[in-house]
Specification:
By secondary structure, the protein is an alpha+beta fold. It is about 30% helix and about 25% strand. It is built from 15 helices and 18 strands. An eight-stranded mixed β-sheet has the order 6-10-11-18-17-16-15-14, with helices on both faces. α7 packs across α15. The protein is elongated. The N terminus is likely disordered.
């Protein structure tokens, strides 16, 4: 493998050297492109194209990046790219001052310019701007990727998102949809009298989820702290305090594996509603995602992971016992003993983790996890999870081995997780203690015991429904992205040699 040479030590390529010489010459002439502090913009490429009949002949002021140059001599055609798209510039020597025209001809692809001109159509019918004044606002000292091949290497695209957005303008669509989804989500909850709040990112206890945390150190307090793995426990403290409907949209940090569906830092919304249960949370999850699809895309039908997904309301709801019976052929509803449940699971080729207790609940969950998820393509709520894998969830009054919990699956991906929240402090302490025992046996992704949260529960928490939803995966669904890195502007990447 060739040795990596830091940028500052690399010999300049011919293109870079020529661009720097142009910069030196401009400065010598008194035209430093980095001195300009402001350029008034009155229109953009999309508005001109959408309203050509009304804008024909009008003077406009545009700014953006030069993406191509065509023609020599006394006439040049350029493509200017701004935040809304591209438009052609028509630059002719007798339409502007000669010195300004000569300086414009020396501009490079990638330079940022401001132009003043009038709107017209060329003989070929292309909507364009006839330039009368041009100002170089910023010099591009590095050439853009070769125009016919663009920037296609995914590693480079994700590391240099700024270049990706320049040369692959269609990428911006994903992040526009992301922004609109979060805006819709907030509006949906605000209209239902939820209050948006903020809770700490740094905590002395990592709780609210089964995940390995990132650890940092607070120098003044001289204590280790954890970057949050969930917002659940602080939000439920607010329910105890009397804030009956709360939600938080925020970054979560989990020190675990990376794959097309996982990034170490990601965005969720968690919401909690007093006097509600997991059925209410199902209605909200369905309302948010189906409503967003209709508002943002204008359709309930989306393409994702090679599947056509129908997001129209009326999503399927199955208990985990029903799902395992349908897809695996084991009816856990008729099994009462732990040994029988474990044997039935093993007979179907299901493996139970060594650290897990060999119980009815763990056997049921292992069957679902290993044999059922892959079949869940259309939106499906899987409900009634075993208590062993739901340490913060209220038990079912019908079957105490189960909890009032659901996970939402679309295209065999989990998009939301919700509970009828456990508000019995005695039961909660027992379950926390079991998690502590698992941690002591070597499972570092189990819950930590949070004494202050238990104290809050002892003051009394009303019956509460709560849900966490992955923003990134929802955006993947709406955009059709096959990897989470396509919907996070700056995904976590492995360090390059010079970063170490």
């Amino acid at each position: 493998m060739a040795k990596f040479v830091p940028q500052a030590e690399m010999p300049l390529s011919d293109q870079v050297r020529v661009r720097r010489e142009k910069l030196d010459n401009l400065r010598a002439e008194g035209f430093d492109p980095f001195v300009q502090t402001r350029f008034e913009v009155t229109s953009d490429s999309a508005a001109i194209k959408a309203n050509y009949d009304a804008m024909e002949g009008q003077s406009v002021r545009l700014a953006g990046r030069l993406m191509s140059k065509r023609g020599m001599g006394k006439v040049s055609f350029c493509d200017l790219q701004d935040s809304t798209g591209r438009i052609q510039l028509y630059v002719k020597f007798d339409e502007m001052e000669e010195a300004s025209f000569q300086r414009f001809k020396k501009n490079d692809i990638g330079d940022i310019v401001g132009v003043v001109g009038d709107v017209f159509k060329t003989e070929r019918g292309e909507i364009s701007v006839r330039v009368h004044e041009a100002t170089l606002l910023s010099k591009s000292l590095l050439p853009l990727p070769e125009k016919f091949h663009g920037l296609t290497d995914k590693e480079t695209r994700f590391r240099q998102r700024y270049v990706d957005l320049m040369v692959n303008p269609e990428v911006k669509r994903n992040f526009v949809i992301r922004s609109r989804f979060i805006k819709f989500l907030r509006s949906y909850l605000d209209n239902r009298n939820y209050i948006e709040v903020e809770t700490p990112v740094l905590n002395t206890i990592a709780g609210g989820a089964a995940a390995r945390p990132f650890v940092t150190h607070h120098n003044t307090l001289d204590i280790d702290m954890y970057m949050r793995i969930a917002t659940e426990l602080p939000l439920k403290r607010l329910i105890v305090g009397g804030m009956d409907r709360v939600y938080e949209v925020g970054r979560i940090f989990r020190n675990e594996g990376m794959d097309p569906k996982h990034n170490p830092e990601f965005t969720t919304v968690e919401l909690y509603q007093a006097y509600a249960d997991f059925h209410d949370m199902m209605d909200i999850a369905e309302g948010i995602i189906s409503g967003a699809a209709q508002e943002i895309l204008g359709t309930y039908e989306v393409q994702w992971m090679g599947e056509t997904i129908n997001l129209a309301p009326g999503w399927r709801r199955l208990t985990m016992v029903e799902a395992v019976k349908e897809y695996v052929g084991i009816d856990f509803g008729t099994i009462t003993g732990d040994a029988e449940a474990v044997a039935a699971a093993k007979a179907k080729g299901v493996e139970l983790a060594d650290a897990a207790e060999k119980t009815w609940g763990n056997a049921l969950y292992a069957c679902f996890d290993q044999k059922v998820e892959e079949h869940l393509i259309q939106p499906t709520f899987i409900t009634m999870y075993p208590v062993e894998v739901s340490p913060l969830t209220k038990r079912s009054p019908i079957d105490p081995r189960l909890t009032e919990r659901f996970e939402l699956f679309i295209c065999h991906s989990e998009l939301a997780n919700a509970y009828s929240e456990l508000n019995d402090p005695i039961d909660q302490r027992i379950r926390f203690q079991k998690q502590v025992e698992q941690r002591e046996r070597g499972d570092d992704e189990t819950e930590m015991l949070d004494e202050d949260f238990l104290t809050a529960l002892e003051y009394g928490m009303p019956p509460t429904g709560g849900m966490g939803m992955g923003i990134d995966r929802c955006v993947m669904l709406l955009t059709g992205a096959d990897t989470i890195r396509e919907v996070i502007l700056f995904p976590t990447m492995k360090s390059l040699p010079n970063d170490k």
